[in-house]
Specification:
There is one protein chain. The protein is mainly α. The protein contains three helices and no strands. It starts with a helix and ends with a helix.
Length: about 80
């Protein structure tokens, strides 16, 4: 499950649209783009206390809600 701050960020970016399925592309749905990805990373880091290395700063890592949840869980050692 995503931290509430991350969920709120995605909901704000998706305002007025149907809920995003966990396996839908955040980029194909228009929720994220290359510019908002940097902001999304900052929200994740602030909400979780993890530091995301440059090697992981790519759209594929955070393509879907499910991938983002899995990444955060791995980073937190869960």
């Amino acid at each position: 499950m995503l931290p509430i701050q991350v969920t709120n960020f995605l909901n704000e970016r998706n305002a007025g649209a149907p809920a995003i399925p966990a396996d839908a592309s955040l980029f194909d749905t228009g929720v994220l783009d290359s510019f908002s990805l940097a902001e999304f990373i900052t929200v994740i880091e602030d909400a979780t206390g993890i530091s995301i290395p440059d090697a992981d700063l790519n759209p594929e890592t955070f393509e879907t809600i499910a991938k983002t949840e899995a990444y955060i869980a791995r980073a937190l050692g869960a």
